[in-house]
Specification:
Layout: H1 5-13, H2 21-28, H3 32-44, E1 62-71, H4 76-84, E2 89-94, E3 101-108, H5 113-120, E4 127-134
Antiparallel strand pairs: 1-3, 1-4, 2-3
Helix pairs in contact: 2-3
Amino acid sequence: MRIDETNSKIISQLRNGRKSFGEIAKKLSTTPNTIRGRVKKLISNGVLDITGVIDPGKMDNHFLAFVGVKLRNMNLVKKGEEFSKLKGVVSVGIVTGQFDLILIVLLNDDFGLLDFLTKEVSKIKDVYSTETFVVYKTFNLKVPYVL
């Protein structure tokens, strides 16, 4: 789907997901029905989700880790899909560089890094190695609560 200037502005306005279509329409000099129709189309095309997200740094006993994964084969899409279904996984990216995949993982005191690696990653075949980067602090990164 092509994202024109109006769609881009609507998405930008929805950074505050509680903003009404009427408020957005007023700001963009259009009608609430236009905004509603465009948002519906963006959602149905998988371009936009309006969801609640958290800042793990502001929640007691929660933290993020980025996990670089090297695979034994190049079936990247299939493996990415498998990793995306594991507990704690917020996002999976197929990347260039020394890793094949980068995972963003939400963890807490009840489901920590050791649990993720031994109970979840161990379910995936053909993992050659992993390298974990524990995130101390984030800026402008909020994630869905997946635990």
